[in-house]
Design goal:
Elements lengths: L10 E4 L5 H12 L3 E6 L6 H9 L4 E5 L5 H15 L4 E4 L14 H26 L5 E6 L12 H21 L4 E8 L8 H4 L2 H9 L10 H11 L10 E4 L13
Parallel strand pairs: 1-2, 1-4, 2-3, 4-5, 5-6, 6-7
Length: 259
């Protein structure tokens, strides 16, 4: 059974690894045995995480990646392949958000979020798949969100981008399934990260959101470990085109009932 989740000898790219969920995903994959390619817009922002991964006894390669630049994306994928000689796993995590009421969203806000979260996800997957296809093997994990399946006020561009990631995942799964590549979407719920710290500073909001989560708490980093390793490992070889929600059940639409 343990062999089904063993990533020893495999190489995983984790984009957006300078903070937040990207680092949680990287730690889980390293603990399962994978060596890592970690990326951020500024490679110097990866220094602390690089030291942490190396302290775990894993090899790593920090690379700069700007998902708004097609050349940067291609350079990153080519450098990862050249350094390790293989790419087995991609965790397509780099993303951003702009929180505004819909009437206040600007043209620039929309382009920033969609270009980062949706266009960037596609072209990073494409660049990495060019190296996976000749080997006939790959695990691509696109990071979505509970907003991939549910809408929230003030998150118009973000919801659109994450819904697009879900649909894109299904399309790419169909494109590359015959090449031995699975493509799935991992969709976290409400996790406390630097991106949404302002929400968690509001005790009233925390109570509000927890009341709507059947498990009655926000997500913790450990809650994602099993999901990302499962989708990256041999155990998920017949799972593709799927969206795995790790959200404590909030996507059920549950609310407190009055008895």
């Amino acid at each position: 059974m343990s062999e089904l989740f063993d990533l020893n000898g495999q190489v995983a790219i984790v984009t957006g690894a300078s903070r937040g969920l990207g680092q949680y995903f990287g730690r889980a994959l390293a603990a399962a045995g994978a060596d890592l390619v970690i990326t951020a817009r500024k490679v110097e922002d990866l220094a602390d995480f690089q030291a942490e991964i190396e302290a775990r006894g894993r090899r790593d390669l920090p690379l700069a990646l700007d998902v708004h630049s097609e050349q940067s994306i291609r350079d990153m994928a080519d450098a990862a392949q050249a350094h390790f000689g293989r790419i087995d796993i991609l965790v397509n995590n780099a993303g951003c958000n702009v929180r505004k009421p819909a009437l206040e969203v600007t043209w620039e806000d929309w382009n920033l979020v969609l270009d980062t979260n949706l266009r960037g996800t596609f072209f990073v997957a494409q660049a990495v798949a060019r190296h996976m296809v000749p080997r006939g093997y790959g695990r691509i994990i696109n990071i979505g969100s509970v907003t991939s399946v549910a809408g929230y006020a003030g998150l118009g561009p973000y919801c659109a981008s994450r819904g697009g990631v879900k649909q894109l995942t299904m399309s790419l799964a169909d494109d590359w399934g015959g090449d031995g590549i699975t493509v799935n979407c991992l969709a976290p719920g409400w996790f406390k990260t630097a991106q949404n710290q302002v929400l968690y500073d509001n005790e009233e909001w925390v109570k509000y959101i927890c009341d709507r989560i059947p498990l009655k708490r926000p997500g913790q980093p450990r809650d994602l470990d099993g999901a990302v390793v499962f989708l990256a490992s041999p155990s998920s070889e017949y799972v593709t085109g799927q969206t795995l929600l790790v959200d404590g059940g909030i996507s059920t639409g549950a609310t407190k009932a009055t008895v």
